[in-house]
């Protein structure tokens, strides 16, 4: 549906993985998981606001209401007629994604590209109903993926016209939800694949590490039946305030392991939190060097502390009061409507086994928002089933880039589909690592991956310009 | 977006072409144009109603409201695993389209295909708000092409599941709006192309015929300044009731010439009205055989009478009171929202010259419905600009079938785009003539055209089943 002539989706999937709360999986608690003390980075972009249509698929009088959609532009390297590189924003502030997608800035000079980072509706400053945007299903109803895609298309088209460069090719970049794990829906990939992949990351580093984490949940569970358990746990976990439930401690640990697997980058980085290079290895080092008489829970806590306090800035942990500093809380609504990705923990995973009960999930959504999920809608709208047979005939010019450290990779396309639908898979890659600015410490495989991507983009652009010349 | 694996669009465009009313073009007065005395035909289909979601792109509580979408099914020839042939309904009662699309019934046995004719929302019985559906923009707002496409996709997916035949290939057939003239929007084809094409049809038969019609408007215009003109005109035009304006007579003539060009079929047929084979030729015969002293207007009237009274069932004409017997009145709303197809009459056309003023058009829509058209939305959503360059990479398995007698063909794709995006163009073809049941009188080119279509469909199905076997 995009008006562009090339589209390129990077599937280094990021998104907010999750933990079971009250024994029920809430897949993307996001809102509570992202705490950052860092001030907003200075970015080489100008901020604009586009008058965007509220409802592209309806013509009721209120559908035509306009809201201000934020977008960031860099024209430093652009020449008229040269490509537009568009980042289609996902579930958070656009600056946060721009700051973590230095790849586009790195390659813009080579292509003389214009860079555009477009914020997704209902995130950051792009609030259709201002501070009332999250008030109820009546306002949140307009937060859907198809409306967001239409926003992008309308904005890109208008931008090209304003630039008097309507024939410029457009290369679209998306990561995580913005370049969605399209096979994670319905019953396409096994529901246990996500947590199995997290577990595999830890097992690959150290079997002991995996077993300690796997054993820690029973210890935590046993504590919950003891008197004074919460006080003891609060002390052991160095919480700022006394814990009200052991489930919070479980969720806190769970989150640390899942997000660390996702961002198991080969260099020091600060995406969700500041972390050292290969943080899974570092966590397992912490676990493995403990004397064997130490409890598994204390070792799991020490490992999780790496995630929450690598910068050593925390004197205590706000386990039950994390702050949403990246503006992610809309994701919870999206999982209750379109983004239904069932997940389970198998016995082989390092997490406590749990299943997925659709009825209970739907009841929670009904309770929270008064909304019923449409669990088959995403695959009806965007496909996914028999993707190889379908896409090889109906698509082209897509890179599916996945790093196998990232548990979301299991919902990605991992094999080439055609000569122009290409899967780039890196064993050591993590959640959209290729989107990050290059650094001197980048390993060879990462340098090579980005080089491949640049080569493919260059080839497609050459084809596009050749097409244009020959009509 | 369709969940299918093959899609096939026939672009034998039908839709309700138009005349300027009060000097402003209202492109699809449809509602007043279709009068049929014929009773509903008996069709070999079972009628079903699908509980359809009102708003696929919103999750406000009322979006989840269901309405009953009508569809017709024929399972006489079907075998499990065999294809589904789906006709995506357009702006009228689905029975009417089913009755005029005998091609599907003709070819079903060969393919062991299941036939499904799906009614478009807000037409026929598929009224989301019952008799209040057309009450205002608040209800009509849900009448959009993308909602209709989503309806089709959801229904097809559900149907395949209910048939336990999810891997069945789906071949989609659409005519006219249901297989839209995608280049008719924005500034892709010249705005004068439609009426130039109508004029060309008449000119090709007889230059005199073209010139008589071209000259008749001035005679009509001159009458409107005379005393007693309306009474005289009412008599000359054999109206049942006295005319209230000469514009009605002009629109009535205009409609006859436009629709006759569209349905200039090689055999006797009854789509809009009962008509003889090659009705444009017949009209010109009537005009040419008049003595030259007869006024041009009287000759134009005699020709138009062929369109309105070929069956000789009319004793007088209801020029200002045509009945909408095919349920077409929603089209007017669609042209005021998404389906903005600017049209003009050039000096070379046989119609009085007129331009297109977007501001005036928008003002009329605002007055009628309180709605503002979004004139660039269709091309943003579905593309159209630089279609060759785009579709050759991003699409496949489409037949664009156009008959050059049909003025809508000028907004169609008339050249092959790739080995699987094929343009079938017939010089003597008219508005989706290939969709009609075969008859003994069919000329060779029509027999050959359908044969080509069947061959292409067969090839694609073979490819699909081969893909399925080899994963």
TrEMBL record, chains A, B:
It comes from the Eukaryota. SUPFAM superfamilies: alpha/beta-Hydrolases (SSF53474). Keywords: Glycoprotein, Hydrolase, Protease, Signal. Pfam families: Peptidase_S28. InterPro entries: AB_hydrolase_fold, Peptidase_S28, Ser_carbopepase_S28_SKS. The keyword Protease applies. Residues 1-21 form the signal peptide. The keyword Protease applies. Belongs to the peptidase S28 family. PANTHER family: ALPHA_BETA-HYDROLASES SUPERFAMILY PROTEIN, PROTEASE S28 PRO-X CARBOXYPEPTIDASE-RELATED. This is Lysosomal Pro-X carboxypeptidase.
């Amino acid at each position: 549906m995009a008006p562009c002539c090339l589209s390129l989706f990077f599937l280094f999937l990021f998104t907010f993985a999750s933990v079971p709360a009250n024994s029920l999986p809430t897949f993307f608690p996001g809102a509570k998981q992202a705490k950052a003390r860092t001030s907003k980075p200075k970015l080489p972009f100008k901020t604009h606001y586009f008058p965007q249509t509220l409802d592209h698929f309806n013509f009721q009088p209120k559908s035509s209401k306009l809201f201000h959609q934020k977008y960031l532009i860099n024209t430093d390297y652009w020449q008229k007629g040269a490509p537009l590189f568009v980042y289609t924003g996902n579930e958070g502030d656009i600056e946060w994604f721009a700051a973590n997608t230095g790849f586009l800035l790195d390659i813009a000079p080579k292509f003389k590209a214009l860079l555009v980072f477009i914020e997704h509706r209902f995130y950051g400053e792009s609030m259709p109903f201002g501070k009332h945007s999250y008030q109820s299903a009546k306002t949140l109803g307009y937060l859907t993926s198809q409306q967001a895609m239409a926003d992008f298309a309308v904005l890109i088209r208008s931008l090209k016209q304003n630039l008097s460069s309507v024939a410029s090719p457009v290369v679209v970049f998306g990561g995580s939800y913005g370049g969605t794990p399209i096979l994670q829906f319905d019953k396409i990939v096994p529901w246990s694949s996500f947590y199995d992949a997290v577990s595999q990351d830890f097992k690959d580093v150290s079997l002991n590490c995996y077993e300690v984490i796997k054993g820690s949940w029973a210890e935590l569970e046993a504590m919950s039946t003891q008197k004074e358990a919460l006080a003891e746990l609060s002390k052991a976990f160095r919480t700022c305030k006394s814990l009200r439930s052991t489930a919070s401690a479980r969720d806190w640990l769970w989150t640390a392991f899942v997000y660390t697997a996702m961002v198991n980058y080969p260099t020091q980085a600060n995406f969700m939190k500041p972390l050292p290079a290969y943080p899974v290895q570092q966590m397992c080092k912490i676990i493995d060097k403990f004397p064997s008489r130490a409890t598994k829970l204390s070792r799991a806590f020490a490992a999780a502390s790496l995630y929450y306090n690598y910068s050593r800035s925390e004197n205590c942990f706000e386990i039950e009061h994390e702050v949403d500093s990246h503006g992610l809380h809309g994701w919870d609504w999206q999982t209750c409507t379109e983004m239904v990705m069932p997940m389970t923990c198998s016995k082989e995973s390092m997490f406590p086994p749990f299943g997925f009960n659709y009825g209970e999930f739907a009841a929670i959504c009904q309770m929270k928002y008064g909304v019923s999920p449409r669990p088959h809608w995403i695959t009806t709208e965007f496909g996914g089933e028999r993707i190889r047979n379908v896409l090889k005939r109906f698509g082209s010019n897509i890179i599916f880039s996945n790093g196998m450290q990232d548990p979301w990779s299991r919902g990605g396309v991992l094999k080439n589909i055609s000569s122009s639908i290409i899967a780039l898979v890196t064993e050591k890659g993590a959640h959209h690592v290729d989107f990050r600015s290059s650094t001197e410490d980048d390993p060879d495989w990462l340098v090579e991956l980005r080089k491949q991507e640049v080569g493919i983009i260059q080839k497609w652009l050459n084809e596009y310009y050749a097409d244009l010349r020959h009509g």
